[in-house]
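My hope is that you will study the protein record below before we discuss the fold together.
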Amino acid sequence: MQLAEDFLSVFVHECAGDSQGLYLVCVSGGMDSVVLLDLVVGCEIPCIVAHFNHQLRPSANKEEAFVRSLAQTYQLPALVAGCDVKTVAVEKKTGLEETARQLRYDFFFQQARNNGCMGILTAHHADDQVETVMMHLLRGAGIDGLGGMAYHGILPGWDSKIPVLRPLLGVWRDEINEYALTQGLGYIEDESNTDTRFFRNRLRHEVLPYLDQVSPGVKKRIWQTAAIAAGTRSITQMVTTQDWQLCEGGQIGGVIQMSTARFRSLPVYRQRNLLREVLRLAMPQQRDIGFGVVDRLIAFLENPSERKVYTIDDQHSARIDGRHCFLGNSRQIEDHLKLAHPQWNQDTFLIKVTCQGVLNLSNGYQISWELLDYPDVPSGFRDQYNPEEAWLDAAVFDGAILLRHFVPGDAMAPLGMEGRTAKISDLLINHKIPRPVRECYPVITSKDGVICWLPGIRQAEYGKITGRTRHTLHLVISNNDGSG
């Protein structure tokens, strides 16, 4: 029949598959995946069968046994795993469908990597595409959501190289059913497919049939719209890539960094496209990025709150720090910002300043010191003040200084302010030091506890070089790579 005749061509040309490569075929035991496996075997594409038992239905173990038997029939290896998805969902406080998908794909990708597979094949078909596009539309997705699934797609939340291939994406459910009947293929009906408590099933059994009554042929037109949107998506992607470069976009782990000012310079429609892409990078497990989420984030980046933090969900946030904005995992953002500023998270430490030495701080920074005769101090150091350095009268400190972290209530008289006192908290805020970084920000004091230097920010009047200075204590804060 036509489906069998077209399958290999679609696999090679639409999915960019290699008919000689090894692939992992995801088989649930239902009609769609059984037909997919039969077509793959019929085209002599090397493959491994993979099945994940969600333990959600009474028939779950029966389906697992069926898939094992089916693999034996085709003389193929079967990789099977499972867990109590409902229990995991309760523990993680996540939705049942999303938890099942997460665990299932975790298993599939791990097995694909372990066995050197070139890709993962799923049985998503044209009806699935229509339902997916409708779900995206109803949730407020943009052009990416309207493009639906792709024949060849990368899921960055799982693997940046192994693709998911969907060779049945242009085939309707009726065609798959006809093939199964003609070939005499056995399969197991998934009783949950008729449960309209699930959003997708409600679309399949109630919404789409109604729309087809109102406008016959609507499913085909939705599928065609998805194909057009997917083509448009490739064009907008080029513009988004340019905007990513314009905004000095970068990614470290689960944290995305951009220039706030350059982002604000973009037209709103380009801000939306860029943020969708950024959120996909920062939240790879999130399937749909709604319009509301994006626009609320734009509003924050344009007019940030006093705390300069916006909570996206219980794990992700956006934060503005100086000229940059950061988006991603909240904890990783805090860790990233701590690496960008000196930190001391230990008890007060006595530094004996004899000759010279170096002390490592808590996060890759270091404080170094040296004693100099006053004539050896560089001329003009007062006119070229560097907050990463402090030039102090060694006699004031009697051979020792203290290193501790900031404590609420700390204050000092900054150099050049004619003795006026400033709160350390105000100095930290004025220098855009993020809230989670302030509590461990290092402070240098005399043995008596008088603050003489806020490393990287300001030296104090106390202990400054005067005309009576004979020996100078020179302090420097730097990264371990030597940069300030």
Notes: The chain has a mean pLDDT of 88. Residues 349-479 form a domain with the Phenylalanyl-tRNA Synthetase; Chain B, domain 3 fold (CATH 3.50.40.10). The chain has 17 helices and 22 strands. The chain has three domains: 2-223, 247-339, 349-479.
